[in-house]
Amino acid sequence: MAMSVMPTSKTATVDGRSPAAAVSAVGLRKSYGDKTVLDGIDLLIPAGSVFALLGPNGAGKTTTVQILSTLVPADGGQAQVAGCDLATSPQAVRAAIGVTGQFSAVDGLITGEENMYLMADLHHLPKQEGRRVAAELLERFDLTDAARKPASTYSGGMKRRLDIAMTLVGSPRIIFLDEPTTGLDPRSRHTMWRIIRELVTGGVTVFLTTQYLEEADELADRIAVLNDGKIAAEGTADELKRLVPGGHVRLRFTDPAAYRSAALALGEATGDDEALALQIPSDGSQRELRSILDWLDSAGIEADELTVHTPDLDDVFFALTAGTGTPDQPKEAVR
Fold this sequence. Notes:
The protein has two domains: 21-106 and 154-241, Rossmann fold, CATH 3.40.50.300; 248-309, Alpha-Beta Plaits (2-Layer Sandwich). 33% of the residues lie in helices and 24% in strands. The protein has helices spanning 61-68, 90-96, 112-122, 127-140, 156-167, 186-201, 213-219, 237-241, 256-265, 286-299, 313-320, and strands at 21-32, 35-46, 50-54, 76-81, 84-85, 97-100, 174-178, 205-209, 222-227, 230-235, 248-252, 270-272, 277-281, 305-309.
């Protein structure tokens, strides 16, 4: 489906005028040979929020994470992470962030507890302090009983929990989670969602890339869709859904006379005579809902049921990335 959608994001700044921004970038560019991966993207992510980056396989999601976490340099543009400039203060950026990739950094040859101690040593924590932090995090992530077992014996969900626990040893203010639930079963995925929500409640900012559209819908305060090296659109899940046509309000009646009166008055509505239901094109906004309710009230017509139907993130994704591929793996249905 071909369509033109204008981005909804605000202009990002890196000049100190956005002190509440955990991550900000202007004109971020990256190429590998003659392949342009990022073609001047802008980002502005408030502190203490969850930001999700979606895009087809190969769109540049992981490259974006690698640049913002100082793992690879950008070819152009400016960016600040935790108030520190990527180009001039990479060490300060590294001290403020944690990174968990789609492939676990857990060492399976040692125990979960030893993995935690190793991270504490890497962060130069005093021995006693490192032991205390490790014990607290293992308990927080429900890994105490398995702490002295080799990590190779852990399930996929346990390894992911240990991976994030290890990331938190340094008390990062910003965590980059690059497809953290890939390959997990639904129960483990929901456990990870709970953990991510708890992190944000504690003031941590989460930058999430995911192949599961449901995950972005459930977790993210704001979502950006990356396509052909550019941000195709950015906003809340509801804002993005309103960019795609197909939304409607459904009115259902039990009184046939009320149904016929409403059908005659609402010429743009599509009727279902058998179900006594009308479908009215709508973006689901509060203004449009109020208009419909005010009209029903003024006409003295009472609908027994009003439901709002909006396109889901599946529709948004395929509309914005038409002809450029699909999510990395089959996604789950967005509820």
